Amino acid sequence: MDKKFSGKPASSDVVEEIKNRLDIVDTVSEHVLLKKSGRNYWGCCPFHKEKTPSFSVNPEKGIYKCFGCGEGGDAISFLMKINNTSFWETMTALAQKFGLELPQAGVSKESTDLKNRIVEVNEAAVRFYKKQLLENPEAKQARDYLEKRGIGRDVIEEFNLGFAPDSYDALIKHLSAAKNDYELLFKAGLTSEKTGGGYVDRFRNRIMIPIQNDKGDFIAFGARALSDSQQPKYLNSPDTPVFNKSRSLFALYQAKEAIREQDSVILMEGYFDVISAHVHGIKNVVAMLGTALTEQHVKIIARYTDSRKIYLAFDSDEAGIAATNRGAEVIRSAFTGLGEIRNFDESFVDAASKNDRTVCEIRVITTKTGKDPDEFLRTEGAEAYRKLIENAPLLIDYSINRIINENEQEKKNLTPQEKADIISEIIPLLAEIHNSIIRDEYVRHIADRIGINEESLRTEVNKSLRNVTTHQKKKKISLTVANRHQQYVLAQKNLLSLYFIHTEKFPPLCINRYLKGLTFEETNLETIRRVIEDIIEEVTSSDELFQKLMSRLSDNEEAKKVLTDLIYCAEDKKDLNAFAIEQFVKDHINFLKMYELSEAHNKLRNEYYENDKDDESSLLHQQKVRELIRQRQLGNS
Ligand SMILES: [Zn+2]
After folding, report:
1. % of residues, the chain, pLDDT over 70
2. What distance in angstroms lies between residue 389's CA and the mean position of ligand 1's atoms?
3. Please, what is the Cα angle at 440 between 435 and 441, to 5 degrees?
């Protein structure tokens, strides 16, 4: 090993060493076909779908930036993003690759130790349970159960299924023979506390289903009861330092490649639904762990599917329908804030191909017969299920069908009141369709299905649309405000980017004369500015400034991304002379000041209108407003 790293190296040394050894072009080339053009390399972005390259790699600075989706950073950021790993996970992997020893930092050593030990003891438990399933005569019932479900040896191996004997201490005895650590077993959720003190095996007489994280670590167990008298039917590990059920998905480890390849994911309810799907060659399937779908689940899924095509394949009973509706709501709310969710009209297909990050597509898989996926797969086969996936309706079609069918089943001829009820349920759904042609198509179709006048349905939908439209108008206004604010942030970026003009004439210290004393409202820019202030005296070139900043911000991905922006932002300012720079700074600072003044003005004006207009307060406001206007005029002159 490198001499420098014998003994106890500071983690930052190793991080630096790793960064020095990482070549951005090599790193990216493993995933992207790059072509040199000018000083930079170009390729198609791996983070969004595109046909013409807008992904640029700058080998001098060791950074990349996508002009399509805005991703950017250094080689570490690239690896984190492409592998879905944290900073320290990435560093650990790289340290291994380069044969370096990375002291743990960023995470407390103790908590990492405990986590590692829990994963280790879980692994030992997985081996124990599996051996029991395969060899223990008592496991016959478990083996029969699995066989009946079509689960053979290969599946037992793939999912590491096992059997927990009907005993209070089989696991404890086995594991503590090797390690005398009762507390660890308890912390791992493998045992429960006895009332009189001491511990007992948590899982008894159950089929054991290990739960892995996306890296394959064993983090918990699901366990199915073997006798009818056992409650609950499914028992899961409690939350532990390595396991949180609202953030974990069953079979993600086995499914993630397929999810990526097919750019879609199927969510099911039960462990055996998922296992059965995998057995039948349908691999892009995961399940929640006995909890409802959470936003965290959705975010995890979104990492693996760009177009965010999510199939909900819950049971067809009341509970399943409720879970479908709730799940759909969670998915939509997880994506709100990213923009409109256009899961209804045909245009989403287009938009998805352009990698609109605001799109998600929710489809619902239902079996007409009311069978759960496992049952359906075993009786009807994989091909039949694939057909269901292929023909899975969009959420809106599913919802409309359900509203109409519910009523149809009871009576063939609907009463006027029933029709009115159906319509009032359906109208809000229709009002969400943006494309008027498609909306009209739905109106015609639905009117025909329930036997009402098409025109009167259209009138009702339009009424409701008017309400929606006023809503959207309000949204538009806030959008223009956002754009103005974006300009404001851009102006701040432009100013800060001056530090990175790469010329002899303008070393950072020289630029500092123009920018000294400025502060920025945007958090990342301000973070960067503060670090610059800190190190400006010790750097001689913009390159050095950049490298130092990168290492100071090494675990702040957001700030690094903004820093990458600044480098590209500086490109078009290289030809400015001193006079032009001075003018540029003046104009931009002036713009910032104007913006801030007009914001203050708006705020005051709003306060004025909202206030009770008693003479005194309104007078005070008028004075303040006048002062602001004066300042703005001064600024313009
Ligand atoms: Zn991109």
Report:
1. 84
2. 29
3. 100
The domain made up of 3-98 has a fold known as: DNA Primase; Chain A (3.90.580)
Centre of ligand 1 to C-alpha 257, Å, is: 20
Distance in angstroms between the alpha carbons of the first and the last residue of the chain: 66
What's the gap in Å between 583 CA and the centre of ligand 1?
34
DSSP 230: -
Residue showing tokens 């743990």: 104
3-class DSSP state of 329: helix
Dist CA 562 CA 73 (whole Å) = 8
Is 251 within 8 Å of 286 (Cβ atoms)? yes
Q: 143 C-alpha to center of ligand 1: Å?
A: 49
**pTM for the model:** 0.59
Among 200-204, 296-300, 451-455, 465-469, the minimum mean pLDDT is found in 465-469
Ligand 1 midpoint to CA 66 (Å): 5
CA dist 318 and 338 (Å) reads: 31
Q: Tell how far the Cα of 49 is from the centroid of ligand 1, in angstroms.
A: 7
Spacing, Cα 608 to ligand 1 middle (Å): 45
Kindly give the distance from the C-alpha atom of residue 55 to the centroid of ligand 1, in angstroms, as a whole number. Answer: 6
Say if CB 61 and CB 566 are below 8 A apart.
Answer: no
By three-state DSSP, how is residue 394 classified?
A: strand
Ligand 1 (ion): which residues have CB within 5 A?
A: 45, 47-48, 66, 68-69
45 alpha carbon – ligand 1 mean position (Å)? 4
* pLDDT tier at 517, thresholds 50, 70, 90: confident
What is the CATH number that goes with domain 109-243? Answer: 3.90.980.10
- Burial class, 220, CB count within 10 angstroms (exposed 0-12 / middle 13-18 / buried 19+): buried
| Residue 214, amino acid | D
Confidence class for position 352, pLDDT limits 50, 70, 90: very low
Q: Which residues pair with 223 in a beta bridge?
A: 208, 235
Q: How far is ligand 1, taken at its centre, from the CA of residue 564, in Å?
A: 14
What's the gap in Å between 502 CA and the centre of ligand 1?
26
What is the band of 1 on the pLDDT scale with cuts at 50, 70, 90? very low
One-letter amino acid at 450 equals I
- Cα of 54 from ligand 1 centre, angstroms: 7
Phi, psi angle pair for 346, to nearest 5°: -60, -25
Taking the centre of ligand 1 as the mean of its atom positions, its distance from the CA of residue 405, in whole angstroms, is 43
Q: pLDDT for 138-160, tens place per residue? A: 999 999 999 999 999 999 999 99
Amino acid at 395: L
Which two three-digit tokens encode residue 268? 């099911």
| Cα-to-centroid distance, 180 and ligand 1 (Å) | 52
Å from CA of 56 to ligand 1 middle? 10
Query: What is the architecture, at CATH level 2, of domain 252-466?
Result: 3-Layer(aba) Sandwich (3.40)
> Minimal CA–CA distance to 416: which of 462, 441, 445, 453?
453
Domain boundaries, the chain: 3-98, 109-243, 252-466, 481-636
| Angle in degrees, CA 76, 218, 270, rounded to 5 | 110
Distance CA 344, CA 365 (A): 16
561 phi, psi to nearest 5 deg: -65, -45
Separation of CA 52 and ligand 1 centre (Å): 11
**Same fold flag, 3-98 and 109-243:** no
Given a contact cutoff of 8 angstroms between Cβ atoms, the answer to whether 265 and 310 are in contact is yes
